[in-house]
Amino acid sequence: MYKHLLKLRYAYQPSIKFTHVQPSTQYTPIKMTVREAINLAMDEELAHDPNVFLLGEEVGQYQGAYKVSKGLFQKYGGDRVIDTPITEAGFTGIAVGAALYGLKPIVEFMTWNFAMQAIDHIINSAAKAHYMSAGDQKASIVFRGINGATAYVAAQHSQCFASWYSNVPGLVVLAPFDCDDAKSLLKAAVRNPNPVVFLENEILYSESFELSAEARDPNYLAPIGKAKIMRQGDHVTIVAFSKMVQYSLGAAEQLFKEGINCEVINLRSLRPLDRETILESVKKTGRVVCVEEGWPQSGISAEITALIMEGGAFKYLDAPIQRVTGVEIPTPYAFNLEAMTFPKTEQIVDAVLNVLKGAR
Amino acid sequence: MKHFMRFSKISKAFKEVPSQYVYQINPIQNFEQIKQFRVIDLEGNLIAKEYNNIPKETLNQIFDLMLTIEEMDNILYMSQRQGKISFYMTSFGETATTVGTTAALQPQDFIFPQYREQGSFMWRGFTIEQIVNQCIGNHLDGGKGRQMPVHYGSKDLNIVTVSSPLTTQVPQASGAGYGFRVNGENKIAATWFGEGAASEGDFHSAMNFAQTLKCQTLFLCRNNHYAISTPTDDQFKGDTIAGKAPAYGMRTLKIDGNDLLAVYNGVKYAREEIIKNKEPFFIEFITYRIGDHSTSDHSVLYRSQEEIDSWKSGNNPINRLGLFLKKQGLRQFNDEHDNQIRKDVKNRVIAALKHGSEQQSPSIHDLFTDVYDEVLPHLQDQYTQLREHLTKYKDQYPINKFKGGL
């Protein structure tokens, strides 16, 4: 009976096809910002497929509200890079319609916070279309925009929507961290036939990372549904995504000096979650700290906790799972208040030390 | 067989109105463009004499406030560039609309702002210090440091707090206006929104509901020609926003928004009509956004300096009102006196910035209050955890700058 349940549990995983082409070795790594990496990904995809187009507020002539689409309007013109009037509900609906027809829109939201008025189109129209039409209607569409805290923009611009969208069957939900993630995941998202929610981070836009030789290859697409182990270790597993990966790596560096080796997992894909990588790591370390920017209740960490319970790694745990999340309030504006609202390196270090209590 | 239609006997139950029908296909496209109501011309000459009815004192107070706001906006814009505040939005070129409108309304009328209505706030008594403290986010801020700069509100002044998502305030005004009518109150709900915000779906719902449910709502569209970088030509087709309102069955006025007398008279008329007929009213003001959209914008990237200058010198609300007052002998213009007004405002803003930046930040207890009506147990726990964290890492946080410390 147990085996039967196991079969059921994995039956719902969509068969996401990804093209993992053997990357070319002719490229050398290059340093760039995450913003440039996303721009490069869109540039390559616009060039690769004439059905791909970008739409959103200020994406064209203004070069993008955050300059992510810089240069694309000049290069591809107003038919491929469309400045829309101000209505998320409107242009998302239009984009979903175009996708159902067979085009491949990239919808840019100025922030995922404003996409709430478009959520009916994202979920009831895009996410459920394939299933409800018995496979007739595909919505190959990428919804992208900044998610989570941005600094000094308060409650209506700072919410993290990772748990909302990763809850929905039919959606693929991705959250890149560095340039490799940003470029190769976005390319994979564009070429994926399913609707993809792509959660970017405004603070990461200006951070520079090396774009690896592999990711520089215009044919390379990241595998969807695979996490990345950023740092190996055998004492504690830290699971994070997006900006929190940076703080987790910082915490790991600090803890290393005290002789604690942390394994840092960059989820990259929130739906589908890379259960295998998480479970293998937990079996190795026996201790877990989950980090997310969003609110604790019904968050990503709650899901990871549950999957560890269910996935056969429970008996490997040496301590209860610790979560480090945002404070459960609408984000305030005042600098001092906001600084205390989101996790940083110190809180992650504390959580690791907590989870290790009793191990020494 | 009972339902089989017998064509020999046509039912006489359907009452036809023959004048409703045409027998040729003639689609309608061009409506007659609604003209802008104007009282004074670009040089402040009085044209529509019957509307020269605003008391001299009111006109002077309005003019003083328009000068004050211009000066304040200048300093606060620069203070953002200097890092003293994180964000600001100026209202250059648009103050005749906001100040004039608010002067023509009654104090009990609710205002649902968008974000560029310093004029409305200040006419009703919101002070420079309140604005500056809100922008800084110190403990004196009436909003407890919760909101971004320019997102102020005031229950006392009957102005609903500014909210970022566009156009959400418009159906809210329909709702409030509905409540006023049902309760028989001598109050209207006046709501501001730009021509860009009128593209949102909420605009349609708000207008349709207001007319069908008979709400005491005044819709105020400020068409300042740009929505960040999007010019009106990319935002909509048809006869501006005013052209849409009659389609909802709503009474509509288009007003030259840089003509203070037209603004005042138009709004006064609209308010009277709303209370009398218990129906909404729509006004579109045609004006121009002389400044950038906000401190995050650099408008010369998408429009020419010549265009900006042509409005700034050629069709400027402050100049037009000033010339009118001068020509009508309603105000003595004296360079020294006027410079003194600007200087006083400048000094007051600078003093407010200085005083505001020396203030402590809001208390950490206020991180957890007002989420619900009371601080629930899980929040109480998180507050305790935070205090433990701050105690442990107190040299990493400027605790002495928090009101009430730990």
From TrEMBL, chain A:
InterPro entries reported for this sequence: PDHB_mito-type, Transketolase-like_Pyr-bd, Transketolase_C
GO biological process, alphabetically ordered: pyruvate decarboxylation to acetyl-CoA
Superkingdom field: Eukaryota
Pfam families for this protein = Transket_pyr (PF02779), Transketolase_C (PF02780)
Q: Could you tell me which residue ranges the Transketolase-like pyrimidine-binding domain spans?
A: 32-207
The record's keywords, sorted A to Z, are: Oxidoreductase, Pyruvate, Thiamine pyrophosphate
Q: Reaction catalysed?
A: N(6)-[(R)-lipoyl]-L-lysyl-[protein] + pyruvate + H(+) = N(6)-[(R)-S(8)-acetyldihydrolipoyl]-L-lysyl-[protein] + CO2
Query: E.C. number, please?
Result: 1.2.4.1
Q: Which cofactor does it need?
A: thiamine diphosphate
Outline what the protein does: The pyruvate dehydrogenase complex catalyzes the overall conversion of pyruvate to acetyl-CoA and CO2.
Name of the molecule in the record: Pyruvate dehydrogenase E1 component subunit beta
From TrEMBL, chain B:
Among the record's GO biological process terms, what is one?
branched-chain amino acid catabolic process
In this record, what's one Pfam family? E1_dh
One GO term in the molecular function aspect is: branched-chain 2-oxo acid dehydrogenase activity
Which UniProt keywords are listed? Oxidoreductase, Thiamine pyrophosphate
Stretches assigned to the Dehydrogenase E1 component domain: 65-363
Does Oxidoreductase count among this protein's keywords?
yes
Q: What cofactor does this one take?
A: thiamine diphosphate
List the catalytic activities from the record: N(6)-[(R)-lipoyl]-L-lysyl-[protein] + 3-methyl-2-oxobutanoate + H(+) = N(6)-[(R)-S(8)-2-methylpropanoyldihydrolipoyl]-L-lysyl-[protein] + CO2
**Annotated InterPro entries:** Alpha-ketoacid_DH_E1_comp, DH_E1
Q: Zinc-finger: present as a keyword of the record? A: no
- Which EC class does it fall in? oxidoreductase
- The source's domain of life comes to Eukaryota
Q: What is its EC number?
A: 1.2.4.4
In which family does this protein belong, per the annotation? Answer: Belongs to the BCKDHA family.
Record's function text: The branched-chain alpha-keto dehydrogenase complex catalyzes the overall conversion of alpha-keto acids to acyl-CoA and CO(2). It contains multiple copies of three enzymatic components: branched-chain alpha-keto acid decarboxylase (E1), lipoamide acyltransferase (E2) and lipoamide dehydrogenase (E3).
Q: What is this protein called?
A: 2-oxoisovalerate dehydrogenase subunit alpha
